Amino acid sequence: MSYKAVQKVRVKVPASTANLGPGFDSLGMALNLYAWIDLAISNQTTIHLIGDQMHGIPTDKSNLIYKVAQMVFEEAGVSHPELEITMYSDIPLTRGLGSSASAIVGALAGANALIGNKLTPYALFQLASRLEKHPDNVGASLYGGIVVAFWDGERAESIRIEPDSNLEVLVAIPAFQLSTEKARGVMPKQVSMKDAVYNLSHSSLLVAALSTGNLGMIRHAMKDALHQPYRAALIPGMTTLLEQAENHGALGVALSGAGPTMLALVDARSGQKAELEAFLKDTLAKEGIEAQTLWLKPSQEGVSVIELLEGDEDLQSLVESEVLA
Ligand code: HSE
């Protein structure tokens, strides 16, 4: 990590999945699907978004990355009102794969690197959790691996777990978008003691299973009573997937974050991968939902930043030559 201020940086930040079933607002895992942000101190603000999927994202000073970068400068007591920002992302928007958390974490880490990393990663985690109001996605994008965390409205604390090397992730990403706001809106304001105990016991067991590499326990632990039963109404086919995916080779299955993406944890050595993928796609298709499936791995690395020097390849060329190649 460099402690000298620099003119221009390139950030690579992973997607993430939150909750992992019972760990509502407290468990997250980074995934090897990435967004890249080039950030430079400039004398005029320009924001360039590469690719079609970011259509509609503001390119003026109301842009999230611009605003978050300014928060870092303010917190560190420096002023850089004009920035040149370029962004490319492979993370689908509003699908439950942490796209907004990756933008927040990318902007925090990039802006911090521009000013010589005046803020610690812990301070960035506090800022990110305050912005998202839950620490699961931002923690995973910041630190990588699996993150167990809380945010109590004032502070966030976390511990990172190294994902088991045999853990793979299959996601089915429906073609429709679902906002976190809407998916939180269907949840009850109060829950019973029975459901609270159900979740804390399952979530604790899941953390223990993931920490110790007890992959066989995931199917028992990855069950939720707090949010999935309510959100199922928004995602046709979800209840069938939750009830049956383990019979088709999943170690466990959950809604990814606030959805609509469905996520299955899979043992890399499983002989049922093709069967599971077909089951996910077919179940959603029967409900009229077109879904793209992707095989992913946990990303061991969280956000990373490099300094860009005069003559380095620009992000557009990097995307064309390496990312899309
Ligand atoms: N924990 C959050 C939720 C993640 O489930 O609402 C989505 O941003």
UniProtKB/TrEMBL annotation:
<dbReference type="InterPro" id="IPR036554">
    <property type="entry name" value="GHMP_kinase_C_sf"/>
</dbReference>
<dbReference type="GO" id="GO:0016301">
    <property type="term" value="F:kinase activity"/>
</dbReference>
<comment type="similarity">
    <text>Belongs to the GHMP kinase family. Homoserine kinase subfamily.</text>
</comment>
<dbReference type="InterPro" id="IPR014721">
    <property type="entry name" value="Ribsml_uS5_D2-typ_fold_subgr"/>
</dbReference>
<comment type="function">
    <text>Catalyzes the ATP-dependent phosphorylation of L-homoserine to L-homoserine phosphate.</text>
</comment>
<dbReference type="Pfam" id="PF00288">
    <property type="entry name" value="GHMP_kinases_N"/>
</dbReference>
<keyword id="KW-0418">Kinase</keyword>
<dbReference type="Pfam" id="PF08544">
    <property type="entry name" value="GHMP_kinases_C"/>
</dbReference>
<dbReference type="InterPro" id="IPR006204">
    <property type="entry name" value="GHMP_kinase_N_dom"/>
</dbReference>
<comment type="pathway">
    <text>Amino-acid biosynthesis; L-threonine biosynthesis; L-threonine from L-aspartate: step 4/5.</text>
</comment>
<keyword id="KW-0808">Transferase</keyword>
<keyword id="KW-0791">Threonine biosynthesis</keyword>
<keyword id="KW-0028">Amino-acid biosynthesis</keyword>
<dbReference type="InterPro" id="IPR006203">
    <property type="entry name" value="GHMP_knse_ATP-bd_CS"/>
</dbReference>
<keyword id="KW-0067">ATP-binding</keyword>
<dbReference type="InterPro" id="IPR013750">
    <property type="entry name" value="GHMP_kinase_C_dom"/>
</dbReference>
<feature type="domain" description="GHMP kinase C-terminal">
    <location>
        <begin position="207"/>
        <end position="274"/>
    </location>
</feature>
<feature type="binding site">
    <location>
        <begin position="92"/>
        <end position="102"/>
    </location>
    <ligand>
        <name>ATP</name>
    </ligand>
</feature>
<feature type="domain" description="GHMP kinase N-terminal">
    <location>
        <begin position="63"/>
        <end position="145"/>
    </location>
</feature>
<dbReference type="InterPro" id="IPR000870">
    <property type="entry name" value="Homoserine_kinase"/>
</dbReference>
<keyword id="KW-0963">Cytoplasm</keyword>
<dbReference type="InterPro" id="IPR020568">
    <property type="entry name" value="Ribosomal_Su5_D2-typ_SF"/>
</dbReference>
<protein>
    <recommendedName>
        <fullName>Homoserine kinase</fullName>
        <ecNumber>2.7.1.39</ecNumber>
    </recommendedName>
</protein>
<keyword id="KW-0547">Nucleotide-binding</keyword>
